[in-house]
């Protein structure tokens, strides 16, 4: 009997598509998401394979057009990329690291992203997040795992007044609704996107 290989394509969509919310919050575009784990000795080879410096400090982001790699720990990165580049990322690591000293797991099916943008974004997040989100303490390009109320999130500041929130799909409606509720305390300014 011949072996049959099955290929499954994960569904990448925002949970509760079309859910109304605060105009400062929107679902991030669908993207590929990977958890990358590798030992310190393999960081150089992985950096060369992906074309980004993964050796930067923990809680910082390496990015280029269409790809951002968030360093969450000494041996842990979250890779966010264009959906079309999903296979290329895995192939680049396979080619550049023949010793296979890495773990790359597609987590695009389990989590989604929310973008919060506006002058009150940091204050809105501070209502449920214990971090100091002042620009001096949490600058542009910083990313970390934290909590928002009762949900674990990865928080990344992409601009002075814009944050990207990565959250598991099952918690996304909770985070979305909480942002909408908190937003009621911060009137929407006319120039808010």
TrEMBL record:
Please list every transmembrane segment annotated in the UniProt record, as residue ranges: none
Record-linked InterPro entries: SoxG (IPR007375), TrmE/GcvT-like (IPR027266)
Q: Gene3D superfamilies, from UniProt? A: Heterotetrameric sarcosine oxidase, Probable tRNA modification gtpase trme, domain 1
Name of the protein: Sarcosine oxidase subunit gamma
Source organism (scientific name): Acidiphilium iwatense
């Amino acid at each position: 009997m011949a072996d049959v290989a099955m290929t499954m394509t994960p569904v990448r969509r925002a949970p509760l598509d079309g859910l109304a919310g605060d105009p400062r919050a929107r679902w991030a575009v669908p993207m590929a998401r990977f958890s990358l784990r590798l030992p310190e000795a393999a960081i150089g080879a992985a950096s060369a394979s992906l074309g980004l410096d993964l050796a930067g400090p923990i809680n910082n982001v390496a990015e280029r057009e269409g790809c951002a790699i968030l360093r969450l720990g000494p041996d842990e990165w979250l890779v966010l990329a264009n959906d079309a580049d999903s296979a290329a990322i895995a192939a680049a690591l396979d080619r550049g690291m023949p010793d296979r000293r890495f773990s790359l797991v597609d987590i695009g099916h389990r989590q989604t992203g929310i973008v919060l943008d506006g002058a009150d974004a940091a204050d809105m997040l501070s209502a449920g997040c214990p971090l100091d989100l002042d620009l001096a303490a949490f600058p542009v390009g910083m990313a970390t795992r934290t909590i928002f109320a009762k949900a674990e999130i990865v928080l990344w500041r992409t601009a002075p007044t814009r944050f990207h929130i990565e959250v598991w799909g099952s918690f996304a409606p909770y985070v979305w609704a909480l942002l909408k509720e908190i937003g009621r305390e911060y009137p929407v300014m006319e120039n808010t996107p």
